[in-house]
Amino acid sequence: MRPLALALLFTHLAAVAAGLEARAQSRPPRGSMTARMTCSEAMALVKNEGDVIIAAGGAPERFVSNPGQCSGSEIAELRFAPTRDNPQCPIGYHCREPGFEEWNW
Questions:
Q1: Would you indicate the residue range of the signal peptide (predicted)?
Q2: Residues 70, 74, 75, 79: is their CA dihedral positive or negative?
């Protein structure tokens, strides 16, 4: 009886740990609607956080405050998002891997 109880306990603990890990990995978007913010508020959010996930009118996307926060193999692109007072607000940078044609051979 005791081994069965221990097996059930470990199975439950493993399921709980897996659920907590999945929740930590899927961090929710901050400032999920830039359309509700002013341009300066959206820019300040990215600048103050440094690295933030925002749903700027579409799917959630990672924004960084400066190109130096991208890894060495990534390219930083200035991103624009619609805000309450500016349809093309430059809120921060998006890091992405370059395509084959973009490498400087």
A1: 1-17
A2: negative
Please give the backbone phi and psi of residue 66, each rounded to the nearest 5 degrees, phi first: -150, 155
Which amino acid does the sequence have at 71? S
Tens digit of each residue's pLDDT (9 = 90 or more) over 26-50: 554 444 578 888 999 999 999 999 9
| Integer Cα distance of 83 and 15 in angstroms | 41
Residues 28/76, Cβ–Cβ less than 8 Å? no
For residues 59-87, give the mean pLDDT.
Answer: 90
Report DSSP state, residue 60.
-
Which has more pLDDT, 100 or 42? 42
Between CA 67 and CA 78 the distance in angstroms is 9
- Residue 53 half-sphere exposure toward CB, CA atoms < 13 A: 8
Q: For residue 83, what are its two tokens?
A: 């805000």
53 phi and psi, to 5 degrees?
A: -105, 125
Report whether 34 contacts 57 (CB < 8 A).
yes
